[in-house]
Design a protein that fits this description.
- By secondary structure, the chain is an alpha+beta fold.
- About 45% of the residues lie in helices and about 15% in strands.
- It has a six-stranded antiparallel β-sheet.
- A hairpin with a 3-residue loop joins strand 3 and strand 4.
- The longest helix is centred in the last third of the chain and has 13 residues.
Length: about 270
């Protein structure tokens, strides 16, 4: 990595932490940070000096915790770890016939999801359900990143722990050793999300649900109970349709009042 930006960032963050008691040098000593991160002092020294420029995601996640990095700093650390390597990503093409299906699903809340959780295209009904929560803010919007790295997700999904379990179970349906895209996203979330993602990734994954009921906390409409079904499309790109329907009379009444007046597809 040119100019050792990763090492300089780690060192600068270590030196800005205020240690307990009076010390002649600023920040925490390497030995203390290394112990907190479960590393040797030599490994941390090599990282800061640029001799080790490709540390694995668990090492960076441990350092992020030891250095008390904020959410935005964790994202910056992840981007520095990529160096000149662009993050991999699968094709995101939406087939014409899938777009046609989405149009015909209006005004229901339906969204096309990639195997990595990218939201590729959605109906105006889904836009009404999700946009005000920030779920559609990403480029591209990604359900996994939103759940684990956006603070608003814990408000949007009152059953956040269950939603997080589902996200990891879904991600682990592909083997990381043969699917570089899933492996790259897992590495990213290990660094940016930290313990809530790491802990779930280490545990045995449950089988992802093909459907169920979600509680949504809508900023304007309040709590909604949405039943959803996931339809796997018969192509080798792994895309899926997620269709949401009201699960109780109260939610049905809210959606009937808020339902878009015109039928249109909102493309991702």
């Amino acid at each position: 990595m040119a100019d050792n930006e990763l090492g300089l960032f780690l060192r600068s963050r270590r030196e800005t932490i205020s240690p307990a008691g009076r010390r002649r040098t600023p920040g925490l000593p390497r030995a203390e940070v290394a112990a907190l991160a479960g590393l040797t002092v030599d490994r941390l020294t090599r990282l800061e000096q640029g001799a080790d420029r490709c540390p694995p995601a668990p090492v960076l996640a441990a350092l992020a915790g030891a250095l008390r990095l904020s959410a935005s700093e964790r994202v910056h650390l992840y981007r520095l770890s990529l160096g000149s390597r662009p993050p991999p990503g699968p094709a995101r093409e939406v087939r014409d016939r899938v777009r046609a299906i989405l149009v015909r699903l209006e005004p229901s809340a339906a969204v096309l999801v990639s195997p990595l959780g990218d939201l590729l295209a959605w109906t105006s009904g889904f836009a009404w359900l999700a946009a005000s929560s920030g779920l559609l803010d990403g480029d591209p919007p990604n359900l996994n990143r939103y759940v684990f790295t956006d603070r608003r997700a814990r408000t949007t999904f009152p059953d956040w722990d269950r939603e997080a379990d589902t996200r990891v179970a879904d991600l682990r349906q592909g083997r990381f050793d043969v699917d570089r895209h899933r492996a790259a996203l897992a590495d990213e979330l290990t660094i940016t999300a930290g313990e809530p993602f790491e802990r779930r990734l280490r545990s045995l994954p449950e089988r992802p649900r093909g459907g169920g009921v979600q509680r949504w906390n809508h900023p304007r409409a309040g709590e909604l109970l949405m039943a959803y079904e996931i339809l796997i499309l018969p192509e080798d790109d792994g895309q899926r349709l997620m269709i949401h329907l009201p699960a109780d009379a109260a939610t049905e009444a809210v959606l009937a009042a808020q339902r878009p007046k015109t039928l249109r597809l909102v493309a991702g």
